[in-house]
Design brief:
There is one protein chain. This protein starts with a strand and ends with a strand. With 116 residues, the chain is mainly beta. Helices cover 0% and strands 51% of the residues. Strand 5 and strand 6 form a beta hairpin. The radius of gyration is 13 Å and the shape is globular.
Length: 116
């Protein structure tokens, strides 16, 4: 069973930056689509960005330009670089792995708090 472990969350002031990491434990990382989702208190979980094994990316429109998803297949790790953070970015950020024919896998989440 694949496991995902997120890291890099924390408390940052508005305008600051954070980079989240998601380590994937399986052997098929390079053909797995990785995604970052977030869930703020009282709100539904929403897609932030995703990246295919080949590097094609997809973003929530309102986050383009501030968030960048990337991956390092040699390290089995996906990243989410966040700049110019705003208080409304405060949420638990979850890593997600999807591969054809397999159930999707979620990480445990990492808290990002942006103070004004």
């Amino acid at each position: 069973q694949v496991q995902l472990v997120e890291s890099g969350g924390g408390l940052v002031q508005a305008g600051g930056s954070l980079r989240l990491s998601c380590a994937h434990s399986g052997s098929m990382f390079s053909v797995t689509t990785m995604g970052w989702y977030r869930q703020a208190p009282g709100k539904q979980r929403e897609l932030v960005a995703s990246i295919t094994g080949g590097g094609s990316t997809n973003y929530a429109d309102y986050l383009k330009g501030r968030f960048t998803i990337s991956r390092d297949n040699a390290k089995n790790t996906a990243y989410l670089q966040m700049i110019n953070l705003k208080p409304e970015d405060t949420a638990v950020y979850y890593c997600n792995a999807k591969r054809s024919g397999r159930s999707e896998v979620w990480g445990q989440g990492t808290q990002v708090t942006v103070s004004s």
